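@channel anyone free to eyeball this complex?
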Amino acid sequence: MTAEFWLTQAFNGVSYGALLFLLASGLSLIFGVMHIVNLAHGSYFMLGGYVGLSVVWRTGSFVAALACGALAVALIGVGMERLFLRRLPASQTLGQVLMTIGFALIFQDVALLVWGGDPYTIPAPAMLSGALRVGALHFPVYRVFIIAVAIVIGALLWLTLEGTRTGAVIRAAVDDAEMAQGVGINVPAVSLLVFALGAGLAALGGVIGGAFLGVYPGADFEVLPYAFVVVIVGGLGSLPGAMVGSLLVGLLDNFGKALFPELSYFTLFAPMALILALRPTGLFGRA
Amino acid sequence: MARQTVLAAGGLIAVGVIAPLLPSYPLTLLTQALISAIFAMSLDILLGYTGLPSLGHAAYFGVAAYAVAILAVDARAGFVTCVVAGLVAAAGTAALFGLLAIRATGTYFLMITLALGMVVWGLAFRWVSMTKGDNGISGIPRPELALPWSLGAPLPFFYFTLAAAALAWLALGLLVRSPFGMSLKGIRESQSRMRSLGYNVWLHKYLSFIIAGVFAGFAGILWAYYNGFVSPVDVQLVTSVEALLMVALGGSGTLVGPAIGAALIVFLKNFVSVYTKRWLLILGAVYIGVILFAPRGLVGALRADAAPLPPAEG
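replying in thread with the prediction:
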């Protein structure tokens, strides 16, 4: 176990955490505003990857893939929220769970129908290939790119939430939807906006992850637990929680896999169960 | 005795009588439906009677199934050893997880049980030296009992499962009618009221959690013997959610409802997959349709005292 090992693993963990942040920040915000436990969130990630793949095949443009993937899935999210989830009373947590898993199964089957069962990789642009050398260490440029995207998105979300009127409206809806509605905030419109944003961010993660982990059937249910761990550890509805949670989960997962391959999921989920037992609302969550 | 109970008992007897006339495929489906029915009823002790929506119930089912698989295949252990070990494993896991989960209510209970379920799935998937990982453990022999018929054939194994399911149904029926079961319903309706009446709410919930785990484990043991194969699929999130669907479809807060829901889902899955490859699509539509059109389940639509799905705050 040299310093090189620790640095490389830490870097890999941070870059994986950055990808998780794209996925989990949306899930956390959706929960914060609408109290929806969305089990279809991993499907947004997978569908984003598939749409991005098709766009890259047609146009060859990675940027177009990012834009189209995020936009298409944001629209799917809007449709789901508007036509189905909104019909359920907010107290029907279990109903939401069953309904969103229903959508997840449908998306899985549709993806299989359209894109088949073979795994693909989205070709990354040439400028993002290769590695940065720092002394004896190699840092793949693509992983640096993922970290940069996550920092930019995180900063934008933070500035929007803390600094703009829209952000204040969203925070008000998170804190107390009923009261926000009472002072004249259009909570259903905020919910729709947040749902679109969350689905779009997850899809963006799917396109970026598609060039890094690949796009394949089953990716939806593979990333879903990770997103949930991040949100649970960080606290439901908290952006700083999602940031810290993503970083923590990325590192735990990476070191767990490197050091204890047989127990790697255990090293991820057991600390989470412990955090929850000690702080049932997560690190940054409020009851 | 309630009319539903008589009808359900009549149904079980009728199935037992016509079983010898059935070909082996419907017989194995019926066996599978009975095992799922035990699993769904055990979940309803938590969900419908205590008001605790668990999203990780496959953990106890799976732990027991794995215990049987490992002992029966690796150690060539006998039937009694396997059953006891399976039940103890399920009870122990539930006792441990319950300590962590019972503190939370509503959505947080849902989340923590999901997380605990993932712990078990993670071990099943990655602890390869113990569980054989993704490949699963195959070649679990059917139990050797001192009976004139071998349980290897579909019909004797069906009767074996029928007897086990009737036993579980009877035990759970006595439980929910007992004073303890009544207190659970009281907790479902109002925790604070039960607390001020002097009931130890935590202990009731904790015991309910363990009992539900033990019966899920009972179903898991039967599943391991029925299927002859145990894999991470048995403990994954989708399996836990499927159990919730069975309860929701049949009607929570009853025992007959989840059993009917379980049978319907088992038959639906198998029949639809015969006719079309798109069965996931149809199953997904069933999830959405049940919530939109029958939120109180089939039994709930017919009966007044079925509990609606519990609200977020416990």
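from a first look: Chain A has one domain: 3-278.
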